[in-house]
Fold this sequence. Notes:
Shape: globular
Radius of gyration: 13 Å
Largest sheet: 4 strands, parallel
Number of helices: 4
Oligomer: single chain
Strand order of the largest sheet: 3-2-1-4
Structural class: alpha/beta
Amino acid sequence: MADSLTIDPARVARLRDPQRLEDVNPELVWRTLEPRSDAVIIDVGAGVGFLTLPFAQHYPQAQLYACDILPGMLELLKESAAAESLSNIDCRRMEDTTIPLPDQCADLVMM
């Protein structure tokens, strides 16, 4: 098991596992919550972007903030976003209890 500042390859594989869609389906989330097309969306504990990336694709006019405590996870998310030409994701490193964003800036917060 990796410490809290490094990346555990097995954890990354679990986070990217398509089987997760059976438990957490991004499409079901946005159909249920119906955010505005230009919403500000924060994904707390974004990891490698399991929810962030499909939301950014589905809502190209939205601003997404991907927040995680692991810089390596955010780097992987940035690489995936770049590979998919997604420019509406802003990755932010957070502390255990602090998200580096202004209060009341979000239309939707996911965890």
